[in-house]
Amino acid sequence: MQRRLVLVRHGQSEWNLKNLFTGWKDPGLTEKGVEEAKAAGARLKAQDIKFDVAFTSKLQRAQRTNDLILAELGQRVPVIEDAALNERDYGELTGLNKDDARKTWGEQKVLMWRRSYEVPPPGGESLRDTVARALPYFVREILPRVLNGEQTLVTAHGNSLRALIMVLERLTPEALLRRELFTGAPIIYDVNPDSTIAAIKDLAG
């Protein structure tokens, strides 16, 4: 039985382009983001993957990326949306230009909010909080389907996907913070029956 899980970070959004903290706000994809999503679909098509189910967040940039990937593959599968897969909530930073935030709070404080595992920005979530939200959903809803042999696509966000990757790749919090995820770049996991990873294929670029 083949147990395959594919994770994809959404294509470039309008707020990515403007260098804004996005979080739970809901901008659409840029033209580049649309092309990144289509390219992700083309890369997966070259791998001859036939999906059985797809999961995505409640935010349109992830949903549109998911739809474009499946369209490129020519596949129609059940798509399950859940806020557990939403991006990290950046609280008071949401909507701010990252350079302006550094001017307001200082380089070190903004860096701490962005790159520490445990410290949240004002009114927002830390990466640990995002893990606590996304990981139980993954274990309860997504992983059982993978272990049952369903080829599963998850299209979500940089930080919600890091929450899943932390467990899949057995990363420490420190290593997780260094784990880069590129927009529109599929990561394919072949999963063993005990939920450990047999192989990883990163289709970035």
TrEMBL record:
InterPro entries: His_Pase_superF_clade-1 (IPR013078), His_PPase_superfam (IPR029033), PG/BPGM_mutase_AS (IPR001345), Phosphogly_mut1 (IPR005952). Belongs to the phosphoglycerate mutase family. BPG-dependent PGAM subfamily. This is 2,3-bisphosphoglycerate-dependent phosphoglycerate mutase. One of its GO terms (molecular function) is phosphoglycerate mutase activity. It comes from Methylopila turkensis. Gene3D superfamilies: Phosphoglycerate mutase-like. The gene is gpmA_1. It comes from the Bacteria. Its EC number is 5.4.2.11. Pfam families: His_Phos_1. Pathway: Carbohydrate degradation; glycolysis; pyruvate from D-glyceraldehyde 3-phosphate: step 3/5.
